[in-house]
Write a structure and sequence with these properties.
By secondary structure, the chain is of the alpha/beta class. Helices cover 16% and strands 13% of the residues. The strands form 3 sheets. The chain has a 9-stranded mixed β-sheet, covered by helices on one side. A two-stranded antiparallel sheet has the order 1-13. The chain has a two-stranded parallel sheet with strand order 4-6.
Length: 319
């Protein structure tokens, strides 16, 4: 398993120096659970693009993003990590280029209006499905690790002209190989002409399907990194040999109707299916999520460490 943080991933860019404005702790010394219009106006400064907002620090424990509905369209980067947000709709912010909303309680995130977004990190949440991504016309980097995604895979295909990095690690993905092949690989990943980096470690399918790493390498020949490790010529040769041996012939079987099956029922079904060929097992580890402003992340309980809420009215280089 490679080190994601050590790679210069497309769409990430470099952190810029921000003009920092401290936000005082409320008089009752409890974190802000909502942002009043007066405070938002203060944070927006002169009210001109670009503005950088960071609500990931200990002063905040936001429960929703309703306060941003009336926010002027001047936000370039927004960090909402480490809060208690359940639903997210930021459609008024069509000029926003980066959104980080890791470590929340998200069950729904709408992408309507986010036509300028190049980076989206929503790691360590409770997302179970992908909503319409057709308006994400410029998205390059997508981190959905440490979620519970089981449906909506076809939405990824709508990112076919721009997306280069996708992290799906630790989502409990445990589909039968034929379903995974049909829904995830053929239905979406193969259609992403510019995809170079794929993180998918920590999902049960990675250890259940024999030589899963090489299955992915064979199916996605344009991929350069698998789980943040460079794919070598030897990897591709081995993948071709395993394919010639028919190791993954199971992918041609009729699809299994998962219906409304729970994860437990699904796992029980998969355990009863005998392997189709002998071979090794590819293992994968965790994949850290990306955080802005030189923050770090780790496992499902990771948190960002930022000391101030920052903003800037000076132009920065686009990723």
């Amino acid at each position: 398993m490679g080190d994601k943080s050590s790679l210069k991933l497309p769409g990430v860019g470099k952190d810029k120096k921000r003009e920092v404005e401290s936000l005082p702790m409320p008089l009752n010394k409890e974190p802000y659970t909502e942002i009043q219009p007066k405070i938002l106006r203060m944070l927006l400064g002169k009210g001109v693009y670009p503005v950088y907002l960071d609500f990931s620090t200990r002063e905040f424990q936001l429960e929703d993003v309703l306060f941003l509905r009336n926010c002027p369209n001047i936000v370039k980067e927004l960090n909402l990590s480490n809060n208690s947000i359940v639903e997210c709709n930021l459609s008024p912010l069509s000029k926003m280029k980066r959104l980080v909303i890791d470590n929340n309680l998200l069950v729904s995130i709408l992408f309507t209006g986010l036509s300028s977004l190049s980076l989206l990190s929503a790691a360590n949440n409770r997302l179970e499905q992908l909503d319409d991504m057709s308006e994400l016309k410029k998205l390059i980097y997508l981190d959905l690790s440490y979620n519970r995604i089981v449906t909506g895979w076809d939405e990824l295909a709508k990112l076919k002209n721009t997306i280069k990095v996708i992290d799906l690690a630790h989502n409990g993905i445990d589909l039968p190989l034929q379903n995974f092949h049909h829904d995830v690989v053929e239905g979406s990943l193969k259609k992403l002409a510019r995809l170079e980096y794929l993180g998918i470690g920590g999902n049960p399918i990675c250890t259940r399907v024999q030589e899963f790493k090489y299955y992915v390498i064979h199916e996605l020949p344009r991929l350069r990194y698998y789980n943040w490790e460079l794919i070598t010529k030897e990897d591709r040769v081995r993948a071709a040999r395993l394919e010639a041996d028919g190791l993954w012939s199971e992918r041609s079987l009729p699809l299994v109707n998962m219906g409304t099956m729970t994860r437990t029922q699904s796992s029980a079904l998969l355990v009863t299916q005998p392997p189709t060929a002998a071979g090794g097992v590819a293992t994968s580890g965790a994949s850290p999520s990306l955080l802005l402003h030189s923050s770090s992340s780790s496992s499902s309980s990771s948190s960002m460490s930022n000391n101030n809420l920052s903003r800037s009215n000076s132009t920065s280089t686009n990723p």
